[in-house]
Amino acid sequence: MEKDPALIVMLTYNDETVENAFDIFEHCKDCGAEYFGFKEEPLPHDEMKRLYDYMRACGKKTVLEVVAYDEEKCVEGARLAVECGCDMLMGTMYFDSVADICRDKGIKYLPFVGKVVSRPSVLGGTIDGMIEEARRLSEKGVFGFDLLGYRFTGDASELIERFVAETDKPVVLAGSVNSYERLDEIKRTMPWGFTIGSAFFDNAYGEDFAEQIDTVCDYISHRTEALVNV
Known about the structure:
Blueprint: E1 6-10, E2 12-13, E3 16-17, H1 21-28, E4 35-39, H2 45-57, E5 61-66, H3 71-84, E6 88-91, H4 96-105, E7 108-110, E8 115-117, E9 122-124, H5 127-138, E10 145-147, H6 156-166, E11 171-173, H7 180-189, E12 193-196, H8 198-201, H9 209-220
Helix pairs in contact: 3-4
């Protein structure tokens, strides 16, 4: 049986970690999501380490997503992922130096593809170009790709469908998964995983943060497939 796409809960809003991330996690630590993470800004590093330690103690897999585009900042993000003991580094533009750090420390590396700018991030480029880039980076040994599908300036649905189908590595659909229509698209295209952050804080799937997480997990696993725009 094909595995359901994994929900990665991001304790972030508009691509920045929320100040009360520890309290939010404490509230939802017993929910059904296995993966939790946040961004490299703006929490102090000691608070980040403390929260990641607690997430692991609660049986969660940990993810750091770095919104950076030049090599120096991307390397800083990779070193921070090492310092925090993260299981997975998402984001950064691909650099061999970042890949080397992740490989040496056993961190799964999923870089951005395409032309990514700004914060919150926006994805440009062409679909064919991104697929070809993914093929090149696959040969370099990355674990998978951080695809900003719903941040794409072109046809997001075409990008997601083609990129997932034509890429032989895990794809995490990141950013702006904020409706049941988009969850349906995820169920249809079956990426390895997807992130939700801001949409939970905007109560896109209910009123309670933890309950929203379980609602999305159940919906993705088809147990509540009949629910539409509830």
